[in-house]
Amino acid sequence: MRLVDGQTPTGHTVLDEADIARKRHICVHVQSHDGPVVKLYLWDMVASDFCQKFKSYGSTPRVFLVTTVNPKCLGGTLALTSMTSSRVLMDDDVQPSKDYRLWLDSNSDVANKVAAEVVSAATLEELFSYIKQEGSKVAWFECIAAIDDIVQSSAWYYISCGGCNSKAVKGPASLICNNKKYLTKVSVYGKSEQEVFVILGDAGKELTGKHAAELVANYFEANEGLGADHSVPVPQALLDTIGQKRTFVVKVSDHNLKWKTQTITVTKILAPGVPLAATTGGVPKFVGEESGPSGGTGDSAGIRARKATESLESDEAKRSKSG
What we know:
Structural class: alpha+beta
CATH architecture of the largest domain: Beta Barrel
CATH class of the largest domain: Mainly Beta
Helix content: 25-40%
Shape: elongated
Distance between the termini: 40 Å
Strand content: 25-35%
Strand order of the largest sheet: 1-2-3-6-5
Number of domains: 2
Radius of gyration: 22 Å
Oligomer: single chain
Order of helices and strands: EHEEHEEEEHHEHEEEEEEHHHEHEH
């Protein structure tokens, strides 16, 4: 088991049974001996049986065996779902799970190595372990992390054009370009890591529920008399996300791999409690440099956002190199 209900299994992992009962399911990320990490959704009584067995162990179990599962391809991602006849077994319950647990104990280096070709889900710790590995390639990961703070030392949005024909908003002294996109830095943390994610474009709307242009326009409407070049402070809609645990789809780029910069680009944010496999886009297990999480090259707005973050990452890389 790599993740259990969004948590990395530790010696003191506690499941929120009330929340699991409300959702009627629990998601467990499982990895076979030599296969990829796969999402396994346990439903209703099977989820309840899993919780009871998980609690019954003196320490957190590491190996999980489930019988009679139904494989599905949801949003381009392989997932497994339980059936009414499914049974859950753990650690030393049966010989196969016992053998696998013994193998993990004696092969921890191999078992803990992150391979982007076969892993689409990773903890924050595994994400940066992948960046440090030799031979790693550009890849997208699904990463669960909690938002610790909104970085306010830099602008939270950018104007995505250098002079376009899009609709402008009338400001106090001039017209204000309304084509604004999120470029927001957030501090996130996992079990033991704390790093910075950069939220771009539509991912910001997925986080706040509002477009960046709308938030900027609302600010100027509420503060008449300000010039168009006034610096708009971080809006409350962003500050309200502090403390939330979200599932981020992130890109490990060439800047991360070549310069080991730890500013990670977020391309998609899932709503709380919504599994990635239930969305239309999905995340491929490994993709090339120019394709995004849905496998396409993206529209012109996405390209502008990519250039914006590449410029940001390039500046950080130069600082790291010169420092």
